[in-house]
């Protein structure tokens, strides 16, 4: 409870209430205020008031009120005193509440669920709508609808109320195009009542069934009610002009402007609450994702911070403003949100809650929109998923994986694998691969364990596409585990025994890839002769020596593919392509572009230590390598990143003296 003191004095009333200024300097008109009370308003809305700068009450109408969700008000500033104006709300009745039920609000749509029966008694339906709680409320430009913006497109009622402004008095032929049934009231009088679908789209037929309505110049109250049960849906208010049936022009409708609310205050404690802005929606893999921007209505007090919790188990901590992505398998998926104020020990000191129903007015973006998709993925990566629900975590992972940045999927993968990672086939295996790639630089031991789990995931001889994908993923994971043993974990001497244990049951390509790692062992040790022998042995396992022309074309294709993926910054795909290249042509590890592009891959993902090892070992074994100038240049780059500036300078002097005319000397 907020402890609101019931007293006529404005100061006493405000002592225990949340107070927010209306961010408008406009007077002399009706405005719309929409906000989430955070569960801190009584169910009837009696704790709401609007006051002016002098503390005098301002008339308002409650257009819709959901104590657990959003409240919409029409506020009459036409005869109000001086601003700034303030919204005040709490759980106890406010004696300054000046509610005017006759105040118009335009143009407001409300949608209600549960329309199972036909519209048999229009008067009873209107009375029901006047006291029922809507699924959602929105401001709209005109009556031109073809769906339910707050839920499924069946069994719902649309109720649009507002004003129309007639410039010239006269008789106008109005019509409703709808499915299933519709009512139109002007100034409280029913002018159109059609209890079945309107049917024809032909202007002549529509004109014959239209209604002649005499209207004086000026404003008139409008109400349009549409009932939809099953099948196609439509709700259009129109006018017949010169024999043509057209939607009623937007210029006829009066639109009351929405106003924002400023930062909140509360005199007897912290003002806890938040604003919600739906940014957009996106579809991928059978899921609909909605992106929200959430802002706390006041800064956290000194020594405290905010923690956000969402109904699917996702949490965010520390920030007063966050972007949250909500995943829903269908369209009618309300999102539960909770903002907690926590002290330095993490103990909640208060909270605000809301149930937000996404609006479906906006177009749903496709995940092919790269920029939008990447923004969603970044928002997903900033949350915590320790308590997330399994299906939601899978949905978040699938979307966050699209930009091919393991850092973006790591928070979801950690949570999912920790709780649900024992089963899941290729999906879980790919998740382990991504998490291992993310951990390889800073936690190579754990990354090696994850790769080892995937390496045992699938072997055998099955030839269907899924089985082959699984086998290749297992081969890649085994190669990555060996790579970490050689270059990160100081266990290169264990690799030969490990390879012998791993090759059983693998394809020729997989065997060649693992045997190629034996060449890496000798390359790392600086033994060029043994390295070359090991790479040649791996090449024999790959069976790529017979047709030299075909092999040259294939290796060129590998090179072009890798360069393209590097340019596109598709790093996981690049790594897979490099390993496939290595599996097909192990000898390329010493004599071609494979090692150079491998080093560039590790540089690109922010692992200069592993890239430095690649460049250093190649230069040691092949100082006259055709790509030696670039190896020297990029090796120096890595040393700079590792804080070894003197060694980097030595390499640059070597580059300049050995290859004075090479373009990289001046880079």
Can you characterise this structure?
The protein is elongated. With 667 residues, the protein is α+β, with helices and mostly antiparallel strands. It has 19 helices and 26 strands. It has four domains: 10-99, Immunoglobulin-like, CATH 2.60.40; 108-255, Sandwich (Jelly Rolls); 270-389, Sandwich (Immunoglobulin-like); 421-592, no CATH class. Helix 13 packs antiparallel against helix 14. 44% of the residues are buried. A hairpin with a 2-residue loop joins strand 16 (234-241) and strand 17 (244-247). The longest helix has 23 residues, at 465-487.
Write the layout of secondary structure elements.
Blueprint (H helix, E strand, L loop, with lengths): L9 H5 L3 E4 L8 E7 L11 E4 L8 E6 L4 E7 L9 E4 L18 E6 L8 H10 L4 E4 L4 E2 L10 E11 L3 E10 L1 E6 L2 E6 L8 H7 L1 E5 L2 E11 L5 E8 L2 E4 L9 E3 L14 E11 L2 E10 L8 E6 L4 E3 L3 E8 L6 E8 L5 E9 L7 E3 L3 H12 L8 H11 L5 H15 L4 H15 L4 H12 L9 H23 L7 H8 L5 H18 L2 H15 L5 H21 L2 H14 L3 H4 L2 H11 L3 H14 L6 H14 L3 H14 L9
Parallel strand pairs: 2-18, 19-26
Antiparallel strand pairs: 1-6, 2-5, 3-6, 4-5, 7-8, 7-10, 9-16, 10-15, 11-14, 11-16, 12-13, 12-15, 16-17, 19-20, 20-23, 21-22, 21-24, 24-25
Helix pairs in contact: 4-5, 4-6, 5-6, 6-7, 7-8, 7-9, 8-9, 9-10, 9-11, 10-11, 11-12, 11-14, 13-14, 13-16, 14-16, 16-17, 16-18, 17-18, 18-19
Radius of gyration: 34 Å
User: What is the strand content?
Assistant: 15-25%
Gross morphology is elongated
Secondary-structure class: alpha+beta
- Mean pLDDT value: 90
Tell me the number of strands.
26
Number of helices: 19
Work out the count of structural domains. 4
* Uncertain parts: 1-9
Helix content: 25-40%
In which order are the strands of the major sheet placed?
Answer: 8-7-10-15-12-13
The major beta sheet can be summarized as: 6 strands, antiparallel
Ends distance: 67 Å
